[in-house]
Amino acid sequence: MQIQHILVVCVGNICRSPMAEYLLKQEFPELQIHSAGIQGLTGHPADEKALLCMQRLNVDMHHHIAKKLDAQMLKQADLVLVMSQNQQKHIERTWPFTKGKTFRLGHWQQCDVADPYQHDQAMFDQTCQLIQTCIADWKNYI
């Protein structure tokens, strides 16, 4: 199946999923790519430290506004990328139709992407680097 629409999910939709969303958009400009949070901080902008990470990569993420995950978003997505095994289990349990199209961003490295929220800039930088590495691993499959 040809992937047209990717949904990236984390907890709040202000750190990890927006960074992954904007990096994926840069990599795959022809695809529909969105992000949301399981407990989305609806209406909030991206975290300042995440904005700085992206600014260093010449990616403008200032227009990001956090959204809460819902069934409609999941139905539209051909691929759902989450940050942890727990998030994958939660989504597949809550919305059983997502089984088979929900994977960890770190699937190919068998790793979770830890939440940098309320940590220092160095933690955000490490998280951003890991997200970039994980996206590179997905290139052959998208």
What's the SSE blueprint?
Elements: E1 5-10, H1 16-27, E2 32-37, H2 48-56, H3 71-76, E3 79-82, H4 85-94, E4 102-104, H5 121-138
Parallel strand pairs: 1-2, 1-3, 3-4
User: What's the number of structural domains?
Assistant: 1
Reported CATH architecture:
3-Layer(aba) Sandwich
- CATH third-tier fold name: Rossmann fold
In angstroms, what is the radius of gyration?
Answer: 14 Å
CATH class: Alpha Beta
Give the terminus-to-terminus CA distance: 10 Å
For the residues shown, what is the average pLDDT? 96
Commentary on this structure:
The protein is globular. It has a 4-stranded parallel sheet, with helices on both faces. By secondary structure, the protein is α/β, with parallel strands linked by helices. Helices cover 39% and strands 13% of the residues. The mean pLDDT is 96. The chain has helices at residues 16-27, 48-56, 71-76, 85-94, 121-138; strands at 5-10, 32-37, 79-82, 102-104. Strand 1, helix 1 and strand 2 (32-37) form a beta-alpha-beta unit. The chain contains 5 helices and 4 strands; from the N terminus they run E-H-E-H-H-E-H-E-H. The N and C termini lie close together (10 Å). It has one domain (5-138): Rossmann fold (3-Layer(aba) Sandwich), CATH 3.40.50. Helix 1 (16-27) crosses helix 5 (121-138).
